[in-house]
Amino acid sequence: MRLISTTAIGFFLVATTAMAEAPKMKMTTDIPVEIMTPDKVDTSIGTLNFFDGIPDNATIDTLYDYMDTARAVQVYVSTVPGVSQYAMRQGQRDIGATKSNQILIWDKLTDSKSLFLTGNSSTIYTWTYTDLANDGPTVIELPAGMLGAINDMWFRYVTDLGIAGPDQGKGGKYLILPPGYDGDVPAGYHVVRPSTFGNWIFMRAYISDGVEKAAQGVKDNLRIYPLSMADNPPAPDFISMSGRDGYNAVPPNDYSYWEMLNQLIQEEPIGTHDPETRGLLTSLGIAKGKPFTPDDRMKAILTDAVAIGNGYARANTVLPKDSDQRIYGPDSEWVMAFADKDTTFLVDGSRRYDSRLWMRYSAVVVTPAMAVTKPGQGSDYGIAGMAKGGEVLDGSKTYKLHLPANVPVKDFWSVTTYDPQTRSMLQTDQTFPALDSYNENMKQNADGSYDVYFAPEAPEGHEGNWIQTVPEKSWFIILRMYGPLEPWLNKTWVPGEIEPVD
């Protein structure tokens, strides 16, 4: 038997009353109540008023405002990847690095002065962007032993570089071609065909033989230049970022989000999105080749929508809506960046909007090498943003994370703390708000396990195992496993929860 809600009953009574009062005409038939609209309809956005199905002016305004807001919130959720990538490139432009041979390098490791999403201080980071619209085909001469990837301007995976890429860590030459390129392609290159003119070339070098040696190896061997200059390529201009102020690569949470999104749309090919997504953007006044000039009403709606979208992104971060992101089930606070370790953010051909939003709001880089299932290869991550039982982490308190003996990694592991406001490294008195297995001052317990402490001041006797936190601020951590082994992958080795210390 079909059940009818009280709302439906009310609708039925109003509609049938209206029908009963209508005159019987020669051609009158019985009209199903479900296709009728009453004169008043109570909804979550207020009472909607109609005369014989025609909305009054106030109702039209209410519905238009709601639909524009709903569309804008969905556009926000869908475009966080692109705006995050654009903010990264804009941060680079803001410090004067506008050419592909101007390469950022954290040659003394990444510290908390850099504002970019969830970096770490256990590898040498280096990156730059292509400008295929102006430079044309662009060459990367990649050193041996690197690990990296190319992502396009919508943070979509293009290819791996180095150890996980076609050169298999031996180094080699890559050729990145502009969208729609149909010219000659010379031999001797790993050819890459992205769908955007801008592309993020991200690389990292391991520091197992020392930071200085790793950084110098990159500087001596990495080259990026237009193919047209191959006979006389410009020298790389490495820009040291360690300890540098003024670098902000975090996307905004206010109206300027839409201005940044519009700039991205203007700079990239129109064919990078499907017609439905382009239609949503156009409904908000953002269209390729057209000025973005919203009126006061639309500015207010867009400002409201980015506030709602940002709030939703934060809710989705601390309590992921996609349950498949929970590594050890609903009673654990450990989550993974990619639901089901799927770096395409798809399930049965459908977009995982919430999983993609989680990753793109909180982190950078997408590559299958970051969610491996083969022991000893790539890297894998566990993220914890709440204390055991779902309590908010308080920077004024002391907490402990227990890592059982025999941390299952081939290469190394690290724990890094982050500021939930910026999703960048937590800024404290420590240069590096992190501990890793390279750290010689960290003490093991008698059974070979580790305890990592988080507190404003070092707990007595645990100074070497301490990461500083800030009173009146929260924080979260990422446990990185480089070359994760079978016990991590099959979950027989399980890290402890973050627990308060009495």
What can be said about this structure in brief?
The protein is α+β, with helices and mostly antiparallel strands. The chain has helices spanning 6-21, 57-94, 132-135, 211-221, 256-267, 275-283, 296-318, 353-362, 486-489, and strands at 40-43, 46-51, 54-55, 102-105, 123-129, 138-142, 146-152, 157-162, 172-176, 190-192, 199-206, 223-226, 237-240, 334-335, 346-347, 350-351, 379-384, 386-387, 391-392, 399-403, 409-418, 434-436, 450-455, 466-468, 476-484, 499-500.
Roughly what is the average pLDDT, rounded to an integer? 92
- Helix- and strand-based class? alpha+beta
Please report the total strand number as a whole number: 26
- Note poorly predicted spans: 1-20
The CATH class name of the domain at 319-500 reads Mainly Beta
Q: What is the first-to-last residue Cα distance?
A: 57 Å
Helix content: 25-40%
Proportion of beta-strand residues:
15-25%
